[in-house]
Amino acid sequence: MLAHLSVNNFAIVKSLQLELSGGMTTITGETGAGKSIAIDALGLCLGGRAEAGMVRQGEEKTEVSAAFLLDSNLHATRWLEDNELLDGSECILRRVITKEGRSRAFINGSPVPLAQLKSLGQLLINIHGQHAHHQLMKSDHQLAMLDQYAGHKSLLNNTNRAYQQWRQADNHFKQLIENSQQNQAQKQLLEYQIKELNELAINEDEFQELEQEHKRLSNSGELASSCQQAIELIYEGEEVNALGILQSASHTLIQLAELDEKLAELPSMLSEAIIQVEEANGELRNYLDSIDVDPARMAYVEERFSKIMSISRKHHVLPEDLYAHHQDLLQQIELLDCSDEKLDAIREDVELKYQQFSTQAEKLSKSRSRYAKELNKLITASMHELSMEKAKFEIEVAQQTAHSSPLGIDNICFTVSTNPGQPLQPIAKVASGGELSRISLAIQVITAQKVDTPSLIFDEVDVGISGPTAAVVGKMLRTLGKSTQVLCVTHLPQVAGCGHQQLFVAKSTKAGKTETQMRELNEEQRIGELARLLCGTEITDSALANAKELLMAA
After folding, report:
1. Which of 21, 122, 145, 538 falls 20 to 30 Å from 370 in CA-CA distance?
2. How far is CA 362 from CA 139, 351, 355, in A?
3. Whether the Cβ atoms of residue 83 and residue 119 lie closer than 8 Å to each other
4. To 5 degrees, how large is the angle CA 456–CA 461–CA 467?
5. Which phi and psi angles does 436 have, rounded to 5°?
6. What does the alpha-carbon distance between residue 394 and residue 377 come to, in Å, rounded to a whole number?
7. Distance, C-alpha 42 to centroid of its chain
8. Which has the closest alpha carbon to 207: 293, 286, 318?
9. pTM across the whole model
C-alpha cells in the first residue's frame, strides 16, 4: 500500500509530506483548493507525463517521491526481483523534473527509464479518474474492464501470440503473391546469370591457384636458368662453389682446433652449414627437374584465367569473389522460387495458424461470456442500491471474426435499461449524466475488487451523485477499504464521513505566492469539515449534529 507521499515545489505546492494508512482515506477541501493535486503529483511517480510548467514558480525543480509497503504484493515483488531493484519490504518511486522540462526517474534509488516506472506503477496503485464515465462509453475501454475483471491473462497472451503468428504467416503469403510477376522477371535474370556461372563452374580457390600457376608458367624459363645458376654457385661450379669453400674452411679449422681448443666448436658449426648447402642443392635440383614447359597447359591456363577475369567484370565482382557471388545468386533464386507446391505449403501453414488463433480466441470469448454474466448480476444489483431500482445492466459479447485482432474476435458493448419496459441499449444512448456517473462508479467499485493492485484512488468519481445515493457510495467505498487501501477525493459529506481517516486541503497566499497544504483531521476537525460540506460557510448546530451522525453511522 501507499505509505508516504512527499511533494516538493509541484505547481502551487511548496512542500507536502503525507503519512497514509490502510482502509479508506477521504480528501476534502474548498473548491479550487487543489484537492486532486496530490493525486496529480503521485501520477508523476507512476510515470505520468512531465512538463516544465509543473515546477513551482521561481524554483529549479520539482521532486515527488512515493513509498509503498510491498507486504503481500507478490506481483510487484517479483517485478523488482526480475529487474534487480528489490530492496527490502519497501519500494520508493521518485521523479525529478527540472524547470527546463527534463525528467529523471528512480526506483529504490536506482535511475531507471520511464517505461520501467510505468510498468511497476501499474502493479502498485490503480487510479480511477473523475472522467472515467466518459471512457466507459468506448468499446475498447469496456473490453479492457471486462478482461480486467475476468483476470484471464494467460488466455489473452495465448490469443495475442497466436494472432501474431497467423498475421506474420499471412503477410508473408500475400507478399509472395503480390510480388510474383516482379519475382518472375528477377528470376529470369538470375537464371541467365547462374547459367553462365554454372558453365564456368569455378571452384572456391580456383582463381588464386590459377593465378599462381600462370605466374609460374609465364616465368618458367627464368626460373630454370636461375635455379641452374644457383646450383652452380653452391655445389657444381668447377672453379669455385660454396660447398668447396665451406669444406676447405672446415679442414683448416680442424687443424687450428688442434693448436687451440677455443676453436674446437667451429668445425662442427661449419659441418652443419655443409649439410644445409647439400640439402638446398638437392631441393633445387628436384625443383629444376620438375619444371616442365607445356605449351598446351600454358594455353589452357591463359584461356581459363582470361575467361574468369571477363565474367567477373561482367558481374561487377572481383575474380577471387566470383565463386561466393555464384553461391549468393543460387540462394537468391531459391528465395524467389514460388512454385505451386511451395505456395500450397505456405497456404496450408497460414490456414493452420489461423485455426490455432481461432481456437485460442474461442476460449477467450467463452471466458468473457462467463464473466460478463457474473458482472451483469453484480452491476445490476449495485445500480439498484444507487437509486436505480428498475435498472438492468447487461454486457453483450458478440463474435466478429471479420474484425479479428490481438485481443480476439469479440466486440463488447455495455447495455442498460433504466426504466421498466425499456429495451437494453448501448450505455451512451440511454443513460443521463447522473445515471452514467452512478453506473460508472458501480462498475469501478466491483471491478476494483478483482484488481491485484493493493491501492485504489477514486478522484471525484462521485460527481453527479447526491442525497441517499451518496451515502450508499460512501458505504461501498468503505467496504472496499476493508480489503484494499482506498483514497477518495470527494465533495460529498456522506462519502467523506465514511472514511477511516480524512485529509483536508487548504489554499493560502503568502508573500504574493499561492500555496496549497494538506493535513490530517482529528475527529473534532472532521465534524467541522463535514458540517461545512453540508451547509457551506455558515456552520449551524444542526449541521454539526448531522456531521456527528455521519461519522457515527460510518
Report:
1. 122
2. 19, 16, 10
3. no
4. 125
5. -60, -40
6. 8
7. 24
8. 318
9. 0.60
Residue matched to cell numbers 477525493 = 489
Q: Cell digits for 291? A: 619444371
The set of cell numbers assigned to 227 is 635455379
Beta strands in 277-424 (DSSP E): 392-399, 410-417
Pairing mode, strands 425-426 and 455-459: unpaired
Buried b (16+ CB within 10 A) or exposed e, 460-496: bbbbbbeeebbbbbbbbbbebbeebbbbbbbbbbbbb
What are the cell numbers at 418? 433504466
Mean pLDDT of all residues in the chain? 86
For residues 39 and 59, is the Cβ–Cβ distance under 8 A? no
Provide the grid cell at 286: 628436384
**pLDDT of res. 337:** 63
In a 13 Å sphere around the CA of 460, the CA atoms on its Cβ side amount to 14
Cell 460527481 belongs to which residue? 463
In the chain, the amino acid numbered 86 is L
Whether the Cβ atoms of residue 459 and residue 127 lie closer than 8 Å to each other: yes
Report the pLDDT averaged over residues 356-373: 96
- Please give the grid coordinates belonging to residue 280: 638446398
Contact indicator for 425, 413 with CB cutoff of 8 Å = no
CB atoms within 10 A of CB 45: 27
Confidence of residue 252 (pLDDT cuts 50, 70, 90): confident
C-alpha cell at 181: 510477376
Among candidate residues 392, 427, 396, 394, the one with its CA nearest the CA of residue 410: 396
